[in-house]
Specification:
The protein is of the alpha+beta class. It has two domains: 94 residues, Hypothetical Cytosolic Protein, Chain: A (2-Layer Sandwich); 116 residues, 2-Layer Sandwich (60s Ribosomal Protein L30, Chain: A), CATH 3.30.1330. The chain contains nine helices and nine strands. The strands form three sheets. Strands 6-9-7-8 form a four-stranded mixed sheet, with helices on both faces. The longest helix has 22 residues.
């Protein structure tokens, strides 16, 4: 599942100031105190085949598209590979901030690489920023492809016509209005950004409701939003969400 970054459209004009309110907190807990001790590495490397990958921290297997792959760059630095396309042996983590923080604290990357590697101090923030950009870019693609409309009336029109595979709503929009546009319909909903950010993607001042037609881009949006949500959450938020 690949996506060309930095499209030359309004989506790429989203400002850092607009994104600032949605930046995730690093939290105050020590993640290494909340995740069991890392087991010794397996004698054999996990092959990067099939739909599942093993997290190098939790050792649990999950679908690859919902995890985060890392590779070691030529300078021995750890590089997040969000599209899972970079060459080299991949190391996989569950898309959770506490897991990434634990991997850094316990030097899980060096263990998995079987060599000393350099890990950026701000790795969780780097991943969050990159995933934020991916979600924005995919939203921009849906608009340019004619697979999304914005605004209450147009979203309702698509819902009534059964054209919708995903609803994107502003996280700071009215809860009552967000429910009213759905009118009881069972449609997946994500709330990744404030109305100002959604508005910049769609060339408007503010946007609260976006309807996306069913298809590959809607699926990509859901997957990337799940990864972004996991990276944004503090440990306490993850526990409350059952994650």
């Amino acid at each position: 599942m690949t996506l060309s970054p930095h499209q030359n459209e309004p989506a790429s004009a989203v400002t850092n100031a607009a994104l600032a309110p949605v930046a995730g907190s690093l939290g105050l807990v020590r993640p290494e105190e909340l995740i069991p001790a890392l087991p010794e590495s397996d004698d054999e490397e996990d092959p990067e085949t099939g739909p599942l990958r093993r997290c190098i921290v939790t050792r649990a297997r999950h679908p690859a598209e919902g995890m985060i792959r890392f590779v070691v760059g030529p300078d021995r630095k750890i590089v997040p590979d969000l599209t899972a396309t970079l060459p080299g042996r991949g190391m996989w983590l569950s898309a959770r901030r506490d897991v990434v923080e634990t991997a850094v604290a316990r030097k899980a990357f060096s263990r998995a690489a079987r060599a000393e590697v350099l890990v950026p101090d701000d790795l969780p923030a780097m991943i969050e920023a990159a995933l934020t950009r991916r979600v924005i870019d995919i939203l921009g693609l849906t608009r340019r492809a004619g697979q999304a409309v914005s605004g209450f009336a147009k979203a309702r029109e698509w819902l009534v016509a059964d054209r919708v595979g995903l609803i994107v709503q502003a996280m700071d929009g009215s809860i009552d209005e967000r429910a009213r546009v759905l009118n009881g319909r069972d449609v997946p909903v994500i709330t990744p950004f404030p109305a100002q950010v959604l508005g910049q993607v769609f060339g408007r001042e503010h946007v609260v409701h976006v309807a996306v037609s069913a298809g590959r881009l809607a699926t990509m949006l859901r997957v990337e939003n799940e990864r972004l949500t996991g990276i944004r959450r503090t440990r306490s938020e993850a526990d409350q969400a059952g994650g």
